Amino acid sequence: MNRERDYVLGTHDEELARLGLQHRVWRPVVLDCWKKAGITVGSRVLDVGAGPGYAAVDLAEIVGSTGEVVALERSSKFVRATEEACRARSLTNVKIHELDLMTDDLPKQDYDFSWCRWVVSFVSDPSLLIKKLAGVLQKGSVAIFHEYGHYETWHFLPRLTNQERFREHVIQTWRQSGGEPDGAAGLPALLSANGFAIRSATPHIFCVGPGDYMWQWPATFIEIYLPRLIEMGRIDQKFADKVRADLTSAEKNPNALMITPLVLEIVAEKL
Ligand SMILES: C[S@@+](CC[C@H](N)C(=O)[O-])C[C@H]1O[C@@H](n2cnc3c(N)ncnc32)[C@H](O)[C@@H]1O
């Protein structure tokens, strides 16, 4: 199996950069969530499906030298990016494991928290992931998730028919690759079945204009995923051009609005 190729969003340089922008856009929400959940100096945090390590680096700086971040990721390219980011910041409190969450064992350690963002949507068996997580988290540990709860909330006002067709292709290709876009939808049942109590569940949905930084998050996703859909043979260049043209016209309209895909924040305690 090719661990880079088999991931539906890809692990190319543009995706690595997109994940960086996505992290920066979401950083204020994420920092607030981590603070409320109790992550602080000395905390030990498991980062599940860490990507190129943008969150891992922020976590490492927060928990400091008395704390630790254990980052799990399947893509060797993303693992190397995380190693480089840690070296550049002289961070010595991040342990990185290149592994597959579905087929490998998760490293056992005394974690206080786990952090899992936009990963449940992409694994073939979310129930296995939560079972494994339950197996390595101790009583009182807190599991934090940011996952899509209702991807179809994503649309523009005035509505853009081609963007909505694009969104449907996104949903279908994620399902075809074995994932489920609304990864958060199954979490309450899975967490209950694996001995977690949900402490809070918070929807994050935004209505933004072209001048808002948040706009860049879905807009760059469109730009990156159109060539991917062409590569997969799902759409042609003509349709891609129409989606781009619609986005460009919305960006020129100062009154255009975009409702973002709903992300559900779930904070649960291991009993
Ligand atoms: C959308 S990215 C999110 C990355 C990171 N959590 C973030 O918020 O920036 C999903 C990540 O999950 C990883 N991933 C998907 N399936 C995986 C698996 N079975 N085992 C390990 N990592 C996986 C991908 O390689 C990718 O880095």
Q: Could you please describe the fold and organization of this structure?
A:
By secondary structure, the chain is of the alpha/beta class. It has a single domain, classed as Vaccinia Virus protein VP39 (Rossmann fold), CATH 3.40.50. Helix content is 42%, strand content 23%. It has eight helices and ten strands. It has a seven-stranded mixed β-sheet with strand order 3-2-1-4-5-10-7, sandwiched between helices. It has a three-stranded antiparallel β-sheet with strand order 6-9-8, with no helix packed on it. Helix 4 (126-136) links the parallel strand 4 (111-117) and strand 5. The protein is globular and about 50 Å long. The mean pLDDT is 96. Bound molecules: S-adenosylmethionine. S-adenosylmethionine (SAM) is lined by residues 7, 9, 19, 23, 49-51, 54-55, 73-75, 78, 100-102, 117-119, 122-123.
Order of helices and strands: HEHEHEEHEEHHEEHHEE
- How many helices? The count is 8
Q: CA-to-CA gap between the ends?
A: 36 Å
Number of domains: 1
Low-confidence stretches: none
The CATH topology label is Rossmann fold
- Which ligands, by name, code or SMILES, are bound? S-adenosylmethionine
C-alpha-based Rg, rounded: 18 Å
Portion of residues in beta strands equals: 15-25%
CATH class label? Alpha Beta
Q: How would you classify the helix and strand content by structural class?
A: alpha/beta
